[in-house]
Amino acid sequence: MAEYLVENGSSVRPERPLEPESLLEPESLLEPQGRLERLRWALRSWQLSAAMWTRAAMAYRTSFVLMLGANIMITSLDFVVVILMFQHTDRLGGWTLPELGLLYGTSAFALGMADLLVGSVDALGERIRAGTLDVMLIRPAPALSQVCAERFTLRRLGRPAQATVVLLWSVSALRVDWSWDKVLLLAALLVSGTVIFGALFVGGATLQFWWGEAKELQNSFTYGGATLLHYPPTVFAKELVAGVTFGVPLAFVNWLPLLHILGKPDPLGLPAAFQFASPLAAALSVLVAALAWRAGLRAYRGAGN
Amino acid sequence: MALIELEDVARTFTIRAKVGRLRRERREVRAVDGLSFTVEAGECVGYIGPNGAGKSTTIKMLTGILVPSAGRLRVAGVDPARERTRLARRIGVVFGQRTTLWWDLPLRDSYDLARRIYRIPDARYRANLDRCVELLELGPLLDTPVRQLSLGQRMRGDLAAALLHDPQVLYLDEPTIGLDVVSKVRVREFLREINTVAGTTVLLTTHDLTDIEQLCGRVMVIDHGRMVYDGGLDGLHATGRSERTLVVDLAGPSAPIEVPGARVVKVDGARQWLAFPAEDSAAPIVAAVAAGYPLLDLSVREPAIEDVIARMYAKVPIG
């Protein structure tokens, strides 16, 4: 009976008038099928939502420019502190200023990118209280994509931008033989670090499903963790270093891979394989964060109690 | 065909209250307690009840936000709890108190996002948008940022946003709250149009009973998580044991009038109010008053639906 409209060659939906039964078949093509397609749809939903927020922010152009500038200035202060410290010493825990620049640059870049991409998830508690999470749950898009993209703003590019400047400076100031394995490892640690911080944002925010004030705890792992990673592992107690290796996997963001790049001994004396394991740690973090999110959403919706 | 089916649906919440300094007590609250009803395709149903009766909990279960603790629930052929996003394509939701539109962007942009999120084919999108723009007179507003719209304009914008993907069911949660009289009339006209012409099934919650009187052929009253009435509007009066009021103006202040079949509910100087059962005739009471008292003027007031429902809420035993 129906005429069919073909969209993108894949989505087919009959014209009106229609019986609900006749909707079933064609509509199933609208719904993303399979793991891969669902993941693509999740990313696409994030992108659609983030694009809207970017345009919304452009309604206040002057404010955007001012906030971006302020963001770069404030986050730069972190490294100014390190520079000031080196006015009185030329080594910190056995590491030089350009080496600390590399630590700072990688950590701040990873945190900044994660904050840009998924950082908004930490306002989950407010969304629950204001009821806007419910509005997200009635759209045919994953709630996590929508929460992460909520209030997406390019002004958060300030931190990764200034981190990149410090990173470039330290790479040029260091006397490192940049063999291909080290270049690859640097690229891999920047991506893995972003993913690990992203997983910490999401996993930490998930606690807000049960405990409204969990935001502070999560911030201590993300922003606090990034500050920890500005300094070499040699200045901290071994228990702490072990904790961020085997517990919260912060050490995989930059400490462990940089040991290989800079040719430094591991204060914990772990096998060299740990220095290349950042992608694996990132994958594990994502898995744990995803499971936590699913459990949290289930609890919120009241399934299985 | 039944579009909405509920069978013995219940939803409990666990509330933790502090008892003393350290102890916390867990308490189970039944927000919805054994609710069963069906709504056929094309119906327009009013869903009412006092605050905290379980209305929004029901709506949240019907939209797939909340999972029921017990019972069976199906909307448009889908189990909302298990297939939330599939259901999302078949329903439209309008919350009167919060907008789904993008505050800082022109109205048009919100619709364009809906087109992409719901993957609405272009031709269908254009046809639906044109229809909504025409019926809701949104033409001049499409390029206005939502924050500059009045409440009534924004509600019209929200209604259009909920209908672009041709939902089979439209849920409205207090769609006329805070609107002026003109906007209310417009919203109701539009809802009647999409219900009767487009055949969209409508379920609306409201505190404004005029919405229900003008739109809904059927009303469901819920209190303490249970259905206390389900049927036509006229049936409400019979079930609610409603009363009519006789207002009498006497020549001067007097003691409360005593006539059979009616009782005085209020006295204000020379004016007195007498209540009597709605199904009784007013004539013998008027005659009795005229015979025994210096009557100057009188009028009969029909029972207000608000009072009928208020009495119905009061009748339900608490606990």
**CATH C-level category of the largest domain in chain B:** Alpha Beta
Q: What radius of gyration of chain B results from the CA coordinates?
A: 24 Å
What is the CATH superfamily classification of the largest domain in chain B? P-loop containing nucleotide triphosphate hydrolases
CATH architecture of the largest domain in chain B: 3-Layer(aba) Sandwich
Please tally the helical runs of chain B, counting DSSP H or I stretches of 4 or more residues.
Answer: 10
Largest sheet of chain A: 2 strands, antiparallel
Strand order of the largest sheet of chain B: 5-6-7-3-8-9
- Silhouette of chain A: globular
* Outline type of chain B: globular
- Low-confidence residue ranges of chain A: 1-25
Number of helices of chain A: 13
SSE-based structural type of chain A: mainly alpha
Level of helix content of chain B? 25-40%
- Strand proportion of chain B: 25-35%
Count of discrete structural domains of chain B: 2
The quaternary structure here is heterodimer
Whole-number average pLDDT of chain A?
A: 86
Distance between the termini of chain A: 45 Å
How is the main sheet of chain B built? 6 strands, mixed
Characterise this structure:
The complex is a heterodimer of chains A (305) and B (319). With 305 residues, chain A is an all-alpha fold. Chain A contains 13 helices and two strands. Chain A folds into two domains: 1-31, no CATH class; 35-301, no CATH class. Chain A has helices at 20-30, 34-57, 61-85, 97-118, 124-130, 132-137, 143-149, 158-173, 180-206, 215-228, 238-247, 255-262, 278-301; strands at 4-7, 11-14. Chain A has a two-stranded antiparallel ribbon. Chain A is globular and about 55 Å long. Chain B is built from ten helices and 13 strands. The two termini of chain B are 36 Å apart. Chain B has helices at residues 55-62, 84-88, 107-117, 122-136, 151-163, 181-196, 209-215, 233-239, 283-292, 305-315, and strands at 2-19, 23-40, 44-48, 70-75, 91-95, 169-173, 201-205, 218-223, 226-231, 243-250, 263-268, 271-277, 295-301. Helices cover 32% and strands 32% of the residues of chain B. Chain B is an alpha/beta fold and 319 residues long. The chains are: A mainly alpha (305), B alpha/beta (319). At the A-B interface, helix 1, helix 2 and helix 6 of A face strand 1, helix 2, strand 5, helix 3 and helix 4 of B.
